[in-house]
Amino acid sequence: METPFAGERLHFVTLLDVLRDLAANASMTTLWSLRNYRLLFSASAISNLGDGVSALAFPWLATLITRDPMLIAMVAFATRLPWLLFSIPAGVWTDRMDRRRLMVQADMVRMLLTFGVVAVILSAPEFPVARAELYIAAISVLAFLLGSAEVLRDNAAQTVLPAVVSADQLERANGQIWSIEQIMGSFVGPPLAGLLIAMAVPAPFVLDAATFALAAGLVWCMAIAPRLAPTRRSWAEEAREGIAWLRGHRVILQLAILLGLMNAISLMTLTILILYSQEILGLGAAGHGLLLTAGAAGGVAGGLLCPAIAARLGRRQSLLVALALLSAALGVIWLATSIWLVALALFTEMFAALLWNVVTVSYRQRLIPDDLLGRVNSLYRFFGWGMMPFGALIGGAIVSAVEPSMGREIALRLPYILGALGMGMVWLYSWRRLHL
Questions:
Q1: Using an 8 Å Cβ cutoff, are 154 and 40 in contact?
Q2: What does the pLDDT read at residue 230?
Q3: Membrane topology type, per the record (predicted)?
Q4: Which of 10, 133, 182, 296 is the most exposed, having the fewest neighbouring CB atoms within 10 Å of its CB?
């Protein structure tokens, strides 16, 4: 199963080529001459390296403790639940506070919590453990707290970008940042996590904590002109302003709800991917990490190519193409018997996701007023990301419910055909009702 990924030298050559392309594009548009952009770009790269490491390490840690799909799904549920609970308050805080300082504080909290994960691992004498539910509960609590800090950090990071680059540079800046996030978070992070887990289970989490500390230091060095402090009013009144703006812009509200459905489907399938990889594809930690680099390659390609594709096709047509590709990719994984096909599907899925993001994020960054950007972005993510924890639970519930009557393999494949059908329904709605 390692055969498709045996050429590690080829991966490093590809990574260097992509980084060179990113630098060339930045110099062409003068983005790289902006100190604040360089610092933000570097912080995003380093922070996402840690996220990529933990993206493999957390679910793999859960599978070392238990093989129960519902317990594994609980970790994913806990990680994503803060997007439902705290997105709206995070928007108010983002518009009230210094966004740079908020990013730094959130990353430092994430560093401390990640050391808490290390402590939990060291407290377990061996894997699998006898008290699986207790350890899963501890990991889930820490994952929930990490996710809560991530809500604040990510909302502030996306909100601060229009203060770093000009409006006509947003698509290019978003594309470059998402590309480096994919390189570090999916190209480098998961394979590195697989190697670190093979050395010692706590090792990837120690590295993760270090990346949060370094990212916080880079953001602290940014020099952004202070925003005019808004008049402090009640939290509810400020939140209502964001709600009123979103209700008055039907297209952005549509996009938020559609994103919620798409993310729920994606988490349903992503939660099961760790078991699919182990039990159907027969991969170990290192092999699974390398498989995820296929998705990273799609994200990198999407970050570099999708701004031009969106300009060529137009916003609406680009979104329809993205939805069609997402549905097709999940259908391929449902039927796949070859690692090559799964890798191709993951590549396609991430490319399509980047095409959707390049269009929709730049669209709302340009349209939403700066004094409302934090609140409206958080509302958008309330709809768009708040449904993800339920997708994770649905994935685990489907496998648990179907396995006794249909067998383990069919149960692990079923979420993918359901996901393909769900994405197809989102495409049909968008084709008929979405008009940017």
A1: no
A2: 57
A3: Multi-pass membrane protein
A4: 10
* Exposure string for 127-150, b = 16+ CB within 10 A, e = fewer: eebeebeebbebbbebbbbbbbbb
Element (H, E) at 227: none
d(C-alpha 173, C-alpha 305), whole Å: 13
Q: How far apart are CA 83 and CA 383, in angstroms?
A: 9
Shortest CA distance to 333 belongs to which of 432, 414, 422?
Answer: 414
Separation between Cα atoms, residue 377 and residue 366, nearest integer Å: 12
What angle (nearest 5°) sits at the alpha carbon of residue 271, between those of residues 269 and 276? 75
Q: What is the mean pLDDT of residues 71-84?
A: 88
Q: Enter the tokens of residue 88.
A: 């709206």
In angstroms, rounded to a whole number, what is the distance separating the alpha carbons of residues 201 and 216?
A: 25
Q: How many CB atoms lie within 10 A of CB 33?
A: 10
Whether 354 has a pLDDT exceeding 60, the answer reads yes
Task: State how far the Cα of 183 lies from the Cα of 181, in Å rounded to an integer.
Answer: 5
User: Cα separations (Å) of 208 from 48, 225, 417?
Assistant: 9, 30, 34
* DSSP alpha helix (H) spans, 233-279: 235-247, 250-275
Are 73 and 392 in contact, with CB atoms under 8 Å apart?
yes
Domains and CATH numbers, the chain: 26-223+235-433 (1.20.1250.20)
Does position 148 have pLDDT exceeding 70, yes or no?
A: yes
With 0-12 / 13-18 / 19 or more C-beta atoms within 10 angstroms meaning exposed / middle / buried, residue 296 is buried
Other beta carbons less than 10 A from residue 244's beta carbon:
11
Single-letter code of the amino acid located at 214: L
Tokens coding 141 = 């609590």
Structure tokens at 127: 């894997």
Q: What letter represents residue 90's amino acid?
A: A
| Average pLDDT value for the chain | 83
d(CA 103, CA 218): 10
Q: Give the rounded percent of residues in the chain with a pLDDT score beyond 90.
A: 36
Contact 31, 168 (CB under 8 A): no
